[in-house]
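Dear support,

I submitted the protein below through the web form. The confirmation email said the job was done, but the results page showed an empty box. After a refresh the structure appeared. I'm attaching both so you can tell me whether what I see now is the final result or a partial one.
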Amino acid sequence: WTMLAACTVGPGTVVTCARAGAEAGLALVWALVFASLLAYVLQEGTARLTIVSGMSLGECMRVKYGGWAVVCGSSAVCWAVAGSVFLGNTLYEVNNWAGGVDAVLAFPGLGEGTLLRVGSCLGFALVVMLLMYWDKTEKLGVILGLVMMAMVGLFCVVVFYMGIDWTKLGLGLIPGIPERTSPGSAEPADIILSLVGTTCIGYNLFLGGAMADGKTLAAARRGIAFSTTAALLVSSLILIVGAGSRADLVEDSFTISQLSEFIRTYVGDVGVSVFAMGFIAAGLSSMLTVPLGAIIAAESLLIEEDKFKAEKEEDNDQKVKMPRNIYLGLVVFMVTIPTIIISANADRIFVILLAQVLNGLLLPLLSICLLLCINDFQFMSSSPQNRVNNILLITTVTITMFLACNVIILKLLGTILTSVPTRLMTSALASVCGMLAVCCSSNVGRNLWLG
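What the results page shows now:
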């Protein structure tokens, strides 16, 4: 569960939370709290599904939709979900490379340069591919976790010295959408969805389910509570530091260099170096976890348990069931794409925001899949989903749909629906209607009614 928390707090989390604080102050603390609650409810649901049914979310979907439009031995539904997770994780990997390069450039004395940027990208690619090839990710993960804790300690020191406006922090717990601060700043709706996307990660529904396998429900709940609470505390610290740097912004848009300069005023170059090393550790841990999460999701959705049993028995240390050549091919693809994009000097802050927003848009799809499977009696016959758990899960999924609808409506109909209250009401109506359709067309509504 510590790994689950560590992969949640990646470079995208650092940039997104710092940017949210720099552009909106403490007004979006509530979004982090909501996102953490959403993450707990969804991960608890997938853990309960795994423990009760003995199958992961992907395996349940393979059984549930196995006969639907079979393509190459697997259902088209499973292919669509696996493709969505793979696409989302590839975007996350681009986000990780962007954050990793920003982390390298944050070191005192290093400036932006083509050679340094390209060299950093190639260095990250080499390290990730070698570690994934040798299957040595766990030992490095412990070291990276310790380095990340040093960065967290640094943020604690900065927050201690800068102080906290407790009144603003309290007001920030009240949900609301702040005004856009400048033409160069991000849309608040995008920032909110990106905070959800970086805290409540879709592929964690598959990764968390794998971690829950063989554990008791009480132990799984404790682990999930620990991981989500730890991620919330770290993310909140980063947002608070970002909010402190708000007055020091000299440009319309947020940059990591501005955050580094703000940290330097309190802890000097040594502190900035600690921040950069922790930032790199966060990037590397996510770079290793994201491909693994995508592969775990793909194999559970597409590969039968005993189909490649012979291949798995040949290498007892192999963590995945799919053939090794396919496994390595997917890793190479997910490493090559971000290396090319970030080496080509794409706008890194924009790339990170785009990755978080698009994954936030994918979250409702994966949440609905969980809701449908956990209400299927063939999986939960020994401990059916009760009304209270259904209400919590339905509310959570509806909120993810609302946030996604709000961003979609803003992008597609923003010039027509210029009033914020109108957009919010339209998004709420669309998400409620969508959830009603899910309930009426499946066992969800029946289970909710009968309790």
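Response: this is the final, complete result; the empty box was a page-load delay. Strands lie at 70-71, 74-75.
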